[in-house]
Amino acid sequence: MVRNILVALFLASSSLATSVCAANRNTQARDNLGNILKTYVLQNRAKKVIFPSQPYLVSYNLDDRRRTLNVQLSPSFAAQDFTASSVRFYYKRLAKALPRPYNKYKLTIMAGGLPIEQLVAGSKCEKGMPNAWGKTEYEGAPWVMNDSRPYFVSHGLFDRHLSLWASHGRYYDGKKDRWKWQRPNLFGTTEDLFTQTIVIPYLIPMLENAGAVVFTPRERDWQKNEVIVDNGGRGYVEDSGKETWKTAQENGFAYHAGTYRDGENPFTQGTARAVKATKKVDVSWASYQPNIPQGGKYAVYVSYQSLKNSVSDAQYIVMHKGQRTVFKVNQQMGGGTWVYLGTFDFDRGNNEFNRVVVTNSSSESGVVTTDAVRFGGGMGNIERGGSCSGMPRCLEGARYSAQWAGAPYSVYSSKNGSDDYGDDINVRSNMTNWLAGGSTYVPTLEGKKVPIELSLAVHSDAGYTTVNDSIIGSLAICTTSFNDGRLNSGVSRMVSHDFADSLLTGLQRDISGKYRKWTRRYLWDRNYSETRKPEVPSAIIETMSHQNFADMRRGLDPNFRFTLARSLYKTILRFVNGNHSVPSVVQPLPVSNFRIERNSSGGLRLSWIAEKDEQEPTAVPTSYIVYTSEDGMGFDNGTVVYTSSFDFEAKKGVNYCFKVTALNRGGESFPSETLAAYLSKSAHAKDILVVDGFSRLSGPAVVDDYSRQGFDLGSDIGVSYGLTAGWNGRQQCFDKSRAGSEGEGSLGYCGDELAGRFIMGNNRDGSVCHVKDIAMSGAYNVVGCSLEALDNNLVKLDHYNLVDIAFGLQRNDGHSLVVYKTFSETLQSKLRSYAKSGGRILVSGAYVGSDMTQPHERSFMSDVLKTTFTGTDTNAGNNMVDGLGLSFDIIRQINDRHFAATSVDRIAACDGRSFAAMRYQDGSTAGVAYDGTDYKSFVMGYPYECINNVRTRQQVMKGLLGFLLK
What we know:
This protein is α+β, with helices and mostly antiparallel strands.
């Protein structure tokens, strides 16, 4: 028995020793796991893969209980084009590299926010994910595709077709016999205008940057001019190659001067042309060359006929300021209406560098047709009650755009023209169904066969409160109890409920995450036209309350509108892709800290920093696009680069402009500011840095005290992101006690004096004219940088003989959601050091003095810039400036071409060697020069860019440089 006990003890001790050894080995393996994974990343690369930069291990998560290992790798690993084969390779090599027991765990390799198996183009999500469409899937060519894009969106919304609109618009009230808005004048705007400021500059571009084709029943182009070139008319030229152009078998568009009566269809009054498609080089073509009345941005719309043998890849070439962008249009759908290609910069006048060409080049057998081409949104031309609206078409209701687009009368009028208000509500959905009819998603309706699969109406009427400082928030609406709860395709209408719910969830998460609390109100399942009539999943999103001051204080800020629109885009992305069981990648945020410098090889180096989206792990850039414009030509179609810098071989004596976007599988970000550069042909050229110091985007001046509340547009109308069409008139009633009421005398009531006016804000290219004017003034090498790059010590001032800071309308206004500043403390310190080293400083801006309110800031102004602030001038009539032997006017009235300095600073010299070098017409000082023996400076209390005459502006710059660099 003792023997048996000894044997048992021996076996137990051996087992314990074995367990201890195994535990020790596991502990060692766990401790060494990080090094193993780092080595794995360094040593493994699939065939034909070239990394833009060496990938690295970001983190890993080991769960012994679940027996899982999750490995997170850097974005550069996600930049490769994954295939099923390469995915297997990486997992196989990872398992081989891992010690036991981890090689038997469930392994997940993450990059760019997704498992790498989901980064394969065409991959599907894990089984069990909801898929509303089931096997219903459109697999044909997109309606419109930009064939010149240097990238492919595999995990965004490519080949997805969406219908989206901003609410309401100007309409004809037959009972009152006048044109009017559909919603009340409040807080400087009206819902008819305000929602466009979310949809047009933000939401539609985000969706299109994700690869989607977006239809909107209201005119989208904020352009008053419209030029139409029709086949057989002025500006139209055709040439037949091997195949000959002929008159198409169906009626086409025809334009006539004057107005169009109710029921008159321009797409039944003319003809179209047709030619047999060819795969050979001897192509036939038709050219549409407009006479552009004013240079600027114009939307381009084409029209054609959809025939039984139409091709799906008709080639359109848009020539814009000498650049060439190619589109493929699927003419098997959407014939007999206006089809949007894109918005482009065109020069004034009539020349071959600004036109549209359609060819019969195709990869298919069939026919190419062509009708009219339209440039610009134009003015409303539908006559109602004996008159037109007198407004740009984009501000009218969708009823009138639908008629201009060739829709049948039944689509835009249900009561024989007697109720335009009701017609306008219904036409938004009717247009969606008319286009989508006969497609995969609306198979039983007759229509244009465009595979629209979702519709969204963007409103801002989420309710009101008499509690002045309380946020209303967002409300969503859907309709599920109609047509037995089914859509045309047989899909349950409950999918619209899911969509509406997702919109609210997304808005509350994204806005609260960025700007603190945002309220989720209700999800209404009710009978509304815009959610009942569409035969595809649909929702109304009441983004906020335009009746509520607290909501509009945020809503009028462009930074807030970007966040709101990005939330809607992300929800649409996930909802659409989720209903097809495919993974989604969110497009990146815009890059920051953009700067240009001369490189060691005599060219230019462009650099920037990727912005991290704290809420979206997939919104990581895997590459970037650099867009280039040369000597005033249009921007090219971009060059893809895989690192955050780019060396450019610049030609001497050429003005260049650059902008950068971030890119990933989900699409493209918004662009950076535009910076310019110029390299002189002279070997002895001096180096000048131009700083784009105007980054401000803001709402109008805020009034909020114990009795008054609202927005003072007269004091400061704010700064929009580029052009805006959102203002209706200045607020007239600020009485807090009148909150919640409507009409004259109600809180927020405003006038109509700005209705129909487009107003330019920050185009983010203010420093470009500085570079161009400096280049024309003598032998100078000039490069640009952003203000934040300078503030973040990414640019060295001592490399430059002169620094020119263009502040534009930059200032800390006290009400913007983002804080802006002219001279930050960092910049003050840098300029002090630069001045001590003998640098030359040029500063201009509307708030260079008034933005410096603290004692130490005033000391900087007097010590370094040798100037003091003496007051602001808001008299727009005081627009003449004398100085440098010149007399010139500056832009002080708001307009649609350039931002206006509605307020400028009066400044004064404060040093024995500083003096008033420029004066406003009232005699006050507009510019102060310091002619020191140690350094020199020149400060202007208005934006240099606002000098109205280009030739005079160039003379001013030459004089400034002559003084500063003498």
